[in-house]
Description:
alpha/beta, five-stranded mixed beta sheet, 35% helix
Amino acid sequence: xxxxxxxxxxxxxxxxxxxxxxxxxxxxxxxxxxxxxxxxxxxxxxxxxxxxxxxxxxxxxxxxxxxxxxxxxxxxxxxxxxxxxxxxxxxxxxxxxxxxxxxxxxxxxxxxxxxxxxxxxxxxxxxxxx
Length: 130
């Protein structure tokens, strides 16, 4: 079940479009325990919390975030790396802008794989397409 909420209340939030953070993690609530330290767009944002691969893909099929934070191990067959591949493929195939990215994964190899995929796409895009 997708959950959402503001990282920080803002009286002007109705007048200003808040940036959106897609937080993908099966266990860590992004609004607790200062997990938003990982947010590449800070705390003043609208957070969508997807706890499964399918929830993240459902969100990405209808909307596109300004930033994403991915856990690697989601407790199911698909991982945060699979979501990262989906995002990069949409960027390549549809010209979507790569969201700012980070990973809060406790799995160091998984985290590095996610970040390397995004960084390699950025590097490729900056040399071939700008």
